[in-house]
Amino acid sequence: MSDLRLYDTLTREILPVKPMEKRTMRFYCCGPTVYGPAHIGNFRTFIMQDVFRRVLEATGMKTRHVRNLTDVDDKTIRQSQAEGRSLGEFTQHWTDRFHEDCDALNLMPPHVEPSAVAHIPEQIELIQKLVDGGNAYKTDDGSVYFSVNSFPDYGNLSRLAERSITTTETDRESSDEYERDSAADFALWKAQRDEDGPNHWPSPWSKGRPGWHIECSCMVLKHLGESFDVHSGGVDLIFPHHENEIAQSEAATGKPFVQHWFHIAHLMVEGKKMSKSLKNLYTLQDIAERGFNAVELRYVLLSGSYRQPLNFTFDSLQAARSALKRLGELQEKLGGAPDPIPPEQDFGPFQPVLDALLNDLNTPDALGRLFRIAREIQKALDAGELNDDQCESAQLGLAMVLQALGLVLPSADGEVLIPEEIQTLADERWEARKQRDWDRADSLRDKITKAGWQVEDRKETFDLTPLN
Fold first, then answer.
1. Whose CA, among 147, 335, 339, 406, lies 20 to 30 Å from 93?
2. Preceding omega of 342 cis (within 30 degrees of 0)
3. Checking DSSP bridges between strand 310-312 and strand 453-457, what pairing results, if any?
């Protein structure tokens, strides 16, 4: 089977994605900062990363997927302090919400999901190594900064060398949040401030906490090694976050950090940039309250090239609903969704769809090919031109495509069929919630999840969606 070819941000070329030394494909995805609900722009990135993994696994490749949780930074500390909650309680709430949204969107869980707080000792050790190597220095307040001038290759990923930027200690960046491009030295360890409250840890330099950038380097080094295959995130992370990761990681190890950089472009909403001021930072719950489901949103977020900004509209959700219904009707005519899909199953007549995905994850081309092939099969079915073997090949091929795209189709009547026993459990859980019997409600949710279903609460009701 052909290799996946993917655009590499560092070289600006489309290159084959191959694991080092023919091993498992190891890739790292910058995960959410858990201080509020993830919005649909965040999920565009996570969905494309999910398709990347699914396509690799469809070719028979073994993967090791690591996606972190940022549970200590300026935002998490500021918001938890404002709400009068401990940092751990606050971030756990939003971590749970993130996981619920991921399940609804049919995102495969990562093999490892490390958190920044759980790796503070390792971060201190990594920072000390950089200090000892002359790449970092302590300031009077007990903070530690990385010296950008100590790393000659700084800026290669973002083409920083093509700009006119100088670095001095006076323009050093102490914040985790960047409002402008800066090539200044950046914080590895941030000394305790009054506004941090109790959120500090001991270190050789001061009581404080790690900077945002060192967190990812530390978790990568621990869970994927000093050099690994693919690093991914939104294009907004290229500079300074990923640039800083490269500098501090390679300065510490003396080895190349990442073989392939995979970045996903921004999501626009109704032709405008997403922003709080425009009130268009939609969450999955916002989409549901407009009457659409997570599968329809996933389809829309797959409909454009990951390398180009995608314009989200509510009309596109309606179009997605119609498209998914047509595919659902074809699947029903072919005999329904096979359960399970036989091992080492090929794509049959839908092989051109996989070919499009292997060509730089070209999801719009893949969807176009999917519907052209589906129309041809529908015509052949209606004309009685397909024998049993051809129907089975089409049925299994369609299932492989849907699995690679992570799409769950509605039944022919437009609704996902819910087993009676799952509906009963969900109804009992809803009654338990109304009675404020939280322990029973949580127990029933666990049973529903173990049975392969996700329950999502709304204001006056709930939704059930299958987990794949």
1. 406
2. no
3. unpaired
CB 211 within 8 A of CB 219: no
Angle value at C-alpha 117, between 112 and 120, nearest 5 degrees: 100
Lowest mean pLDDT among 113-117, 337-341, 389-393, 455-459: 455-459
CA gyration radius, the chain? 24
Task: Look at residue 180 in the predicted model and tell me its pLDDT.
Answer: 31
Q: Are 69 and 335 in contact (CB under 8 A)?
A: no
Report how far apart, in Å, the C-alpha atoms of 457 and of each of 261, 408, 460 are: 37, 20, 8
CA dihedral 193, 198, 199, 200 (to 10 degrees): 70
Residues 6+ apart with CB under 8 A from 148: 154, 167, 183, 184, 185, 186, 247
Phi-psi group of 357: left, alpha or beta (phi > 0 → left; psi -120 to 50 → alpha; rest → beta): alpha
Q: Please say if the pLDDT value at position 204 is more than 90.
A: yes
* Cα pseudo-dihedral 456, 457, 462, 467, rounded to 10: 10
CA-closest candidate to residue 203, choices 128, 116, 114: 128
Q: Bridge partners of 466? A: 453
Direct distance between the N- and C-terminal alpha carbons of the chain, in angstroms, rounded to an integer:
24
pLDDT-based confidence at residue 182 (cuts at 50, 70, 90): very low
DSSP per-residue codes, 310-375: EEE-HHHHHHHHHHHHHHHHHHHHTTS--SSPPTT---GGGHHHHHHHHBT--HHHHHHHHHHHHH
Q: Is the peptide bond before 16 cis (omega within 30 degrees of 0)?
A: no
